[in-house]
Design brief:
Distance between the termini: 46 Å
Low-confidence stretches: 147-160
Largest sheet: 3 strands, antiparallel
Strand order of the largest sheet: 1-2-3
Strand content: 15-25%
Mean pLDDT: 87
Length: 284
């Protein structure tokens, strides 16, 4: 991949339609950018990648490479993924007038200051459309970004951080841990899984601080309570593993091992979620 998308985390990402519409039809919030193998992107987002099958996805990538005479790694196809959360789409009669100074022939993204000029006008119109939809047309269970209460500025004026989805959670955790198991440092991506520390089914959020990247077998043992993580981020292996299966010799050598943590401190496992797992899941 030769060009990356960069923007502040959770800044608005506006959807502009091509000609003949040239309108803003909605928006979402930018979570992160990641270059993913095509199989990983398909497993994570399926048809949301824009094709009906993984075979079609790979064929599209190969065709694009040929068209642009791609000179990079010719191995397994990869996709530069712009990961967005909490999208909102307006009905055609509520589309927002396009940016008056948008270059007609622009083929890529352009950044705008949301506190001034056309950026401010368009973002204010998007927020007004969202509020109108919230009040008049949305079903009771519809999910919208929190209502902004601050004058629009650069970045979303919101009261709560946008929520990650399941797919974005998987990618975010995988990248935060450097695509390596937090325990074994295994780098074979097909063998790694993003783990919720506090189970999602029990109100654990899709947040990197509620995640670990583990080899698949460690993931299953963690979910079943045979493994947990201490407050100082060391792996603990339950005595029940030996008692229940008369085995565990592959895992007990890892007891007390320091986890390899993300480079960003805010991505480290949160103590609240770790305490939940030790109290609600760990077999001791």
């Amino acid at each position: 991949m030769t060009r990356r998308f960069n923007a502040p985390e959770f800044s608005p990402f506006l959807f502009k339609l091509r000609a003949p519409h040239h309108a803003i039809c909605g928006y979402a919030f930018f979570a992160r950018y990641s270059v993913l193998p095509d199989w990983f992107a398909w497993e994570t987002f399926a048809e949301a990648n824009g094709t009906a099958t993984s075979k079609e996805l790979r064929a599209r990538i190969v065709a694009i490479r040929e068209r642009i005479r791609f000179q990079g790694d010719v191995g397994a196809p990869e996709i530069g993924c712009v990961l967005l959360v909490q999208p909102v789409f307006f009905p055609p009669d509520a589309w927002v007038a396009p940016l008056s100074d948008w270059p007609v022939r622009a083929q890529s993204y352009i950044g705008y200051d949301l506190a001034a000029g056309e950026g401010r006008r368009v973002w204010a119109d998007c927020l007004a459309r969202t509020e109108e939809m919230r009040r008049t047309t949305a079903p009771r269970d519809a999910v919208f970004p929190p209502s902004p209460s601050i004058t629009p500025r650069y970045g979303p004026a919101i009261e709560v951080r946008p929520r990650l989805g399941q797919g974005t959670f998987r990618v975010a955790v995988t990248d935060a841990y450097g695509r390596a198991c937090a325990v074994t440092r295994e780098h074979s991506l097909p063998a790694l899984e993003a783990v919720h520390i506090q189970a999602y089914a029990e109100e654990g959020p899709h947040a990197v601080a509620n995640g670990l990247l583990l080899r698949a077998d460690f993931h299953r043992l963690f979910d079943q309570g045979y493994l947990t993580v201490s407050p100082d981020h060391r792996l603990e292996v339950s005595r029940r593993l030996r008692a229940d299966f008369a085995n565990g010799h592959s895992y007990y050598p890892f007891h007390g091992k320091d986890l390899s943590l993300p480079a960003t401190r805010s991505d480290w496992p949160d103590q609240t979620f770790l305490a939940w797992h030790r109290e609600k899941r760990y077999l001791g």
